[in-house]
């Protein structure tokens, strides 16, 4: 039985532990993401992953905790 491209992509994503996540963001924020990714020569998803990692680290060190 032949599989469609969508089925092959879904199987590949599942195997790699990848899942699609979409957000509605202000256009100005989207432009910032695009510019930062381009300036640093990295994919936009990598930029977002790095930002989340940095935020998580800052929470552990108490940098952004309320006093």
Automatic annotation (TrEMBL):
Domain of life: Bacteria
Descriptive protein name: Protein CopB
